[in-house]
Design brief:
Length: 246
């Protein structure tokens, strides 16, 4: 991945953070965005620098805002000297059963996950079309493929992202651009660690692998989709869930 240039949205924590580190380690130059936690972002930059791979820069930018997305894409191109691909990872959840779900639980999740994906895909795709090459990887979820109680809002966004990926793959495949999604299951991020021990044990019983995945296991697949080895994979959804949805 030496010399390749990528943007990862939501790179200060979890899967995004692991993706940034994985790409930098592979020699790529990486920019990432984050919503608010500057300290966490600085920690990722410092961690990446220790790897001795490619360059890494961070940008405070809200995925919900198209103007910020457009400005960020321009700033990334300037900072890295180009852009070969984007990983649209920034996402949130506000899990509640529908009877308890407030309007803003719906709006916030739609706005970050679905509009945020639109914003960065839209802001980056024209440049990729012009250069006749590029990669777009969207971090969806198995919740976009199977239903989980309490996730009406989240599932709608994750299924919506898969629809966007398949449609966009059709629109831009002819320009040498691939558009794919990864659909992780339970992953050991802060959300997992915050669950009660008894709940974690119950969940583990539903996963054939018997454990949650690691952010690195998701990052490895994202890195593969960005690499030359994945040149003929377009419009696909790669499930990374230890067999949960099987
Ligand atoms: P996380 O909460 O650990 O990190 C989220 C990142 O997104 C942070 O860097 C945060 O700053 C950023 N972010 C959130 N809202 C933003 C906004 N409006 N603008 C800009 N940045 C914003 O999340 P995670 O668990 O690593 O999840 C990352 C992605 O993976 C999400 O899209 C999530 O839906 C998906 N996913 C996660 C899991 C899991 O088990 N953790 C499973 C399946 C899918």
């Amino acid at each position: 991945m030496q010399g390749q240039k990528f943007l990862v949205t939501g790179g200060s924590r979890g899967i995004g953070r692991a993706t940034v580190l994985s790409l930098v380690e592979a020699g790529a130059d990486v920019a990432f965005t984050y919503r608010s936690n500057q300290e966490a972002a600085e920690e990722v930059v410092a961690e990446a620098a220790k790897l001795g791979g490619g360059k890494v820069v961070s940008f405070l930018a809200d995925a919900e805002d198209y103007a910020q997305a457009k400005q960020t894409i321009e700033s990334v191109k300037e900072a890295l000297g180009g852009l070969d691909g984007v990983v649209l990872n920034a996402g949130i959840n506000r899990d509640k059963l529908l009877v308890m779900m407030a309007e803003n639980d719906w709006d916030d999740v739609i706005s970050t996950n679905l509009k945020g994906t639109f914003n960065y895909a839209r802001a980056s795709v024209y440049g990729l079309i012009q250069q006749r090459s590029g990669r777009i990887v969207v971090v969806s979820s198995v919740s976009g493929l199977i239903g989980t109680p309490g996730q009406v809002n989240y599932s709608a966004t994750k299924a919506g992202q898969i629809g966007m990926v398949r449609t966009l793959a059709n629109e831009v495949g002819k320009f040498g651009i691939t558009v794919n999604a990864v659909a992780p299951g339970y992953i050991k991020t802060d959300m997992w660690d915050e669950m009660k021990e008894a709940t974690r044990e119950k969940v583990n019983l539903t996963i054939p692998a018997g454990r949650p995945g690691t952010p690195e296991e998701v990052a490895n697949t994202i890195r593969f989709l960005l690499s030359p080895d994945a040149s003929y994979i377009n419009g696909s959804v790669i499930v990374i869930d230890g067999g949960l949805s099987a």
